[in-house]
Amino acid sequence: MQCACTLHYPCCCKRMDRRDFLKNLGVAGGTVLLASSPWLSAFSEAGHTNKATARLGIIGPGSRGRFLMSFLKNNPKAEVIAVCDIYQPSIDEALKMYPQAKVYKDYRKLLENKEIDAVIIATPLNTHLQIALDAFDAGKHVFCEKTLAMTIDGCFQMYQKHRSTGKVFFSGQQRLFDPRYIKVMELIHAGTFGEIEGIRAYWFRNGDWRRPVPSPELERHINWRLYKEYSKGLMTELACHQLQIGSWAMRQIPNKVMGHGAITYWKDGREVYDNVSCIYVFDNGVKMNYESVISNKFYGLEEQILGHLGTVEPEKGKYYFENIDPAPGFLQLVNDIENKLFDSLPFAGTSWAPETANENHGEYILGERPKSDGTSLMLDAFVEAVITGKQPAQIAEEGYYASVLCLLGHDAIETESILTFPDAYKLDYLNHKKVSTL
Length: 438
Hints:
By secondary structure, the chain is of the alpha/beta class. The chain is 32% helix and 17% strand. The strands form two sheets. The protein has a nine-stranded mixed β-sheet. A hairpin with a 5-residue loop joins strand 9 and strand 10. It is globular. The relative contact order is 0.17.
């Protein structure tokens, strides 16, 4: 069956492996998508060394760390040779996946292991910065889960350390490698949906975000996301992913932000908000609205990028043009009759006119919704970059700006003020006023 894609781009209806996917998108030839996704150059064959594998140490093999390990398990070029955690149950679970891995309780001892080429940091947010700085100093390549650090200055320190050491640096922004988002950005940057006039992003859940605790003294160790000492809640855990999509689409970072947060439902002793809302403003006046609520899941998560010619929803992998085919004759007749009926009533007005959006179900850009969210490709790219020792273009910068934007939004919420992106933290390789991320 042919896919519904009418834009004449490579069809991805069937499952493809990494090489087939990249070949279809034009990366193998080094052309088509590198303008929108230059980090895909990590998959280039050129420059590979004779070294067959990347030897990795996992610092923090908790639920997220083991999720990443599950993808590494399927990559013959990745070898996990060490794990480190202070929580024994996490170590035990990790050893079920890699029984030969060396075990450490102190990450600094792991960093002393000369056999390790790179580390993956999947620890609580408040520990990221020091571990990453120490890893760079130890000569390791670094993959650090988002958000990079607890403060904007901490993110800047981590980025600067990457630059000064020349080591590979990735962060957990898997949407950069998601087929839906890659194709969406190519179309946006080609002008398919016209000028971007607005961005809406949201992530709704219905759950207390708590994890079971075997004993009371472990509450903050296990539920660290709920306490300000270790986390900044929804902005650093969820918004970091979606704000990066806005700057990727706009090819610049927003310069101002305002916001509000509160605890309105999960009044269970947590310190971080259970709902947040921010407005980010770009220099050209376009706004990116971000919202997250964790007491209602009806709308799920999505980023909606609104152009004057059409709208695209990357999470669904769908697009909607503003001008769609007129309704079939019968439906048009019914609508006409309905409009005439309501037009004769005093309470009726233009709000009763049928909205075309109700009939516009959109099309899938890749033929159907892909099963992967880009995590596997992201880790594959990190492994390739570790083997070659080459940093893919702009991926460190994307991760840096995503982290800074979510922290800036959090600070705006906390101070109840409009904040401007500090010039001191705009990376010097970029333009001055319109800071392009691509």
